[in-house]
Design goal:
single chain; 275 residues; alpha/beta; five-stranded parallel β-sheet
């Protein structure tokens, strides 16, 4: 009698150690496992392979967990999404459940709860008879997070530092993007209202309206625009709040220009793919 085909699981977390631990757990539970370090990678795996279960962190750069949950459920409602987060905020948990997560578990993880959730998955169909079976899938290492280079887009830079604005404008131009600049959030919002940019690089701390306050207004004016927050502090709470509020990614000053350029390319690729 043919053995049942192994179910496919996906582990999504920007913490490599957590990814490894959850991967080991799913392998021991009989799954073939893929890994992703951010929400964009997770969506690509979902579209290509339709995993049966996804273990997903909430706070990640490049498409955070809440946005990923919503998009995964819109694409495939049969996938079981289990959120595994270190954030104890119950309102955040409720929001994840409303968006389509099946369960929210907090770190450090109680594996008995995860066992119960995994045990509720319906049994997979039996494998096809020998001779009719498709080529076996081999578990692969995580794919690179670097997307193909996106064609140039419109990038709006909103920062009160004129030297940084000029440097970022030069960087965007060198990478084939059309850049606009604004010295404060109000001016940035005016430009968004005139022409929706593909990507906004938005400083968090500015005189007058802060970038964190401008973020929801930008997303209301241009829902498909990807916003990358630029922070002068490494405060992870600010970064988490920004991702939860809909930011695509964040970078910390002094800016790693290589990372920022890759993040802008990723944002453009996602925008043009309708993600």
């Amino acid at each position: 009698m043919p053995e049942p085909e192994r179910q496919l699981g996906l582990v999504v977390d920007d913490d490599a150690d957590m990814r490894a631990m959850l991967t080991d757990y799913l392998v021991m539970s009989g799954f073939e496992v893929r890994q992703a370090a951010n929400g964009l990678e997770a969506l690509l795996h979902v579209k290509r392979e339709r995993p049966r279960v996804i273990l997903l962190d909430l706070h990640m750069p490049r498409l955070g967990g809440l946005d990923a949950v919503q998009r995964i459920r819109a694409f495939d409602r049969t996938t079981k999404v289990i959120v595994v987060t270190g954030d104890p905020d119950p309102s955040l948990h409720d929001r994840a459940l409303r968006l389509g997560a099946s369960l929210v578990l907090t770190k450090p993880l109680d594996f008995s709860e995860l066992d119960a959730a995994i045990g509720q998955l319906p049994a997979p169909p039996p494998a096809a008879p020998v001779g009719e079976r498709p080529a076996a899938r081999i578990a692969s290492p995580p794919q690179s997070t670097a997307p193909p280079t996106a064609p140039g887009g419109l990038v709006l830079i909103v920062d009160d530092d004129p030297e940084l604005r000029a440097a970022l404008e030069e960087l965007m131009g060198a990478r084939g993007h059309r850049a606009q600049v604004a010295g404060d959030a109000i001016a940035g919002l005016r430009l968004v209202g005139q022409e929706a940019p593909d990507v906004v690089l938005l400083d968090i701390e500015m005189p007058g309206m802060k970038g964190s306050d401008a973020l929801p207004a930008i997303l209301a004016l241009a829902p498909n625009t990807k916003v990358i927050m630029v922070s002068g502090t490494s405060n992870t709470d600010i970064a988490r709040r920004s991702l939860t509020a809909g930011a695509f990614d964040y970078v910390v000053k002094p800016i790693d220009l290589g990372y920022l350029a890759q993040s802008v390319d990723t944002a453009l690729s996602m925008r043009r793919a309708g993600l």
